[in-house]
């Protein structure tokens, strides 16, 4: 197992403390301490103790960036347990770069962001961490112009904001100099931008539910949302709502500075708009640097810079979220800095369900990780297997497992051929065809309509599916383009369908596969380039291959694996008259599902 280089600045201080309070106890005391220590996923004791009061002091101010623009920051610092006074001792700093209001968790909310956001690091303050939250340039109380709301950090001049904030935090008298970051979704994405500029004091990050290839997330396999973000029901624009709820900094009681900042927010775009192709240009953005948006805002574009940064990363994602779980797997397999990944059971940024159902606390993992990277505590977190994942329906106390790799080395890719309403392991030997008319009726709330369903026979034993499924379909279509959505579900003996499922999709005209720009785990990869578009020919059999989002679940004995194929989603352009689709399932044109099975 390779060793990783970390800053020794805090390590020296930590060892000194251990020496002062433990040297007189002798080897017997050290042996007792080592036996009482525990450090493994979800469990941590004997390494990091509560040294400060549970409450904290909040201060706020502006930080000036290299181009003179000022960003608003909140700083959460420790209070002495006995006196209640703010401690002046230099400590480690964790910060979040957010487009969602640095202070309050949502519009008209008085709940603090640090107490509500996934991985509530306010719980780490008592262990000797300073916490900071910063409003994005051009949003909330920060000055300047933001080009594209929650991804504006990817282009100049905002590209060096996080660098400047990191280095400012490192130089403060209450900072020891080692800096970490945390956050989920947009604030997971904002972390991924920071190592592209390599601030020297950034040592570790804990990004959750973030993008790796932004096009693959926003327009997965060519299917995206055609509409703009709707304005809120209160008649205000999104920008107006943010401005109204922005939090002033200390000393700005009459909001003079806040009003100045808001004047500079004019022209912020809520998104880059609908850009159907990976190499397409945005018509919503004003800065030419941003125009080729999917390329500009993807961490995969900057792999060399990220890999040269040396920043330690702990990536987190949940099975029960949509394409927001797409990025972490590919980042883990392409980023060469010391990295770990955890896959939980909740929804998007929801780690509370893991604690409620299994006792696993993501904050414990943050503490273990940052103690190692920022404090220099040798707690073994980077020596254990780097992959930790949850499996739905696993036996009690075996739901969580460690692995050396993702995907798992023991995974077998098993083909299930489409038959007459069935999924079978045997290759078809005769002719077979299913015909369906596309339906755009979403009155039931389902994302797909006009479905074809295929099922296995009831299983004679438990079947574990862990990894990335994929599907290969031979189709013909009566229109020049169409959307194909494949959903894998668990059907119980009483015909109830489990809430756990996974899904993949493809717009047929984007089907051309291309040379991989990064490690895509040997899954079908579609460039999304406009030059690679191939329209369907009426009645001509055409092969479509696309991946299905990853999952880890056990289909229990007597349960059935169900494949549902639908031909329209909410982002599908409506065609009149509704086209007809054919799925081939014969010996020459076999359609099949590939499942990652763990024996």
From TrEMBL:
Q: Which InterPro entries match?
A: AB_hydrolase_fold (IPR029058), CocE/Ser_esterase (IPR005674), Galactose-bd-like_sf (IPR008979), Xaa-Pro-like_dom (IPR000383), Xaa-Pro_dipept_C (IPR013736)
What are the alphabetically sorted keywords of the record? Hydrolase
- Its recorded name reads CocE/NonD family hydrolase
Q: Could you give a GO molecular-function term held by this entry?
A: dipeptidyl-peptidase activity
Q: Xaa-Pro dipeptidyl-peptidase C-terminal domain: from which residue to which, for each copy? A: 367-594
Keyword Hydrolase annotated: yes
- Fetch the Pfam families from UniProt: Peptidase_S15 (PF02129), PepX_C (PF08530)
């Amino acid at each position: 197992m390779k060793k990783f280089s970390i800053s020794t600045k805090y390590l020296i201080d930590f060892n000194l403390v251990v020496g002062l309070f433990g040297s007189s106890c002798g080897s017997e005391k050290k042996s007792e301490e080592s036996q009482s220590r525990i450090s493994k996923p979800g469990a941590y004791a004997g390494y990091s103790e509560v040294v400060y009061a549970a409450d904290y002091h909040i201060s706020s101010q502006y930080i000036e960036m290299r181009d003179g623009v000022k960003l608003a920051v909140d700083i959460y610092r420790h209070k002495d347990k006995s006196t209640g006074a703010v401690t002046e001792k230099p400590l480690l700093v964790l910060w979040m770069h957010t487009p969602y209001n640095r202070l309050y968790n949502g519009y008209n909310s008085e709940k603090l962001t640090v107490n509500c956001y996934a991985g509530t690091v306010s719980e780490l303050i008592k262990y000797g961490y300073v916490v900071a939250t910063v409003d994005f340039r051009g949003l909330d109380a920060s000055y300047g112009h933001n080009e594209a709301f929650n991804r504006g950090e990817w282009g100049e001049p905002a590209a060096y904001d996080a660098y400047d904030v990191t280095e400012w935090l490192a130089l403060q008298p209450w900072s020891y100099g080692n800096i970490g970051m945390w956050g989920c979704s947009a604030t997971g994405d904002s972390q991924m931008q920071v190592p592209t500029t390599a601030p020297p004091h950034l040592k570790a990050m804990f990004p959750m539910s973030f993008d790796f290839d932004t096009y693959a997330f926003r327009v997965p396999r060519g299917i995206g949302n055609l509409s703009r973000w709707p304005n809120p029901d209160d008649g205000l624009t999104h920008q107006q709502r943010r401005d109204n709820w922005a939090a002033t900094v200390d000393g700005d009681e009459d909001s003079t500075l806040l009003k100045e900042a808001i004047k500079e927010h004019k022209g912020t775009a809520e998104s880059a708009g609908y850009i159907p192709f990976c190499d397409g240009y945005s018509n919503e953005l004003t800065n030419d640097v941003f125009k080729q948006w999917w390329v500009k805002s993807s961490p995969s574009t900057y792999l060399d810079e990220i890999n040269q940064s040396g920043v330690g990363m702990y990536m987190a994602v949940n099975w029960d979220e949509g394409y927001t779980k797409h990025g972490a797997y590919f980042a883990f397999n392409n980023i060469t800095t010391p990295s770990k990944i955890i896959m939980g059971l909740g929804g998007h940024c929801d780690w509370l369900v893991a604690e409620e159902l299994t006792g696993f606390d993501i904050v414990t993992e943050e503490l273990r990780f940052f103690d190692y990277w920022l404090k220099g505590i040798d707690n073994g977190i980077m020596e254990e297997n780097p992959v930790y994942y949850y499996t739905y329906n696993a036996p009690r106390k075996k739901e969580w497992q460690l692995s050396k790799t993702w995907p798992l080395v023991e995974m077998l890719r098993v083909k299930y051929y489409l038959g007459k309403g069935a999924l079978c392991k045997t290759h078809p030997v005769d002719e077979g065809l299913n015909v369906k008319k596309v339906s755009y009726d979403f009155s039931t709330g389902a994302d797909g309509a006009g479905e074809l369903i295929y099922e296995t026979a009831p299983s004679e034993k438990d079947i574990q599916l862990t990894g990335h499924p994929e599907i290969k379909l031979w189709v013909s279509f009566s229109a020049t383009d169409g959307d194909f959505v494949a959903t894998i579900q668990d059907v119980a003996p009483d015909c109830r369908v489990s809430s756990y499922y996974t899904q993949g999709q493809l717009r047929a005209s984007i089907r051309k596969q291309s040379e991989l720009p990064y490690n895509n785990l040997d899954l079908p990869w579609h460039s999304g380039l406009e030059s690679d578009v191939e329209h369907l020919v009426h009645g001509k059999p055409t092969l479509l291959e696309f991946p299905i989002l990853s999952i880890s679940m056990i289909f229990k004995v007597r349960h059935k694996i169900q494949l549902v194929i639908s031909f329209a989603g909410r982002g599908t352009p409506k065609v009149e008259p509704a086209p007809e689709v054919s799925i081939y399932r014969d010996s020459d044109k076999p359609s099949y599902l590939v499942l990652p099975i763990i024996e």
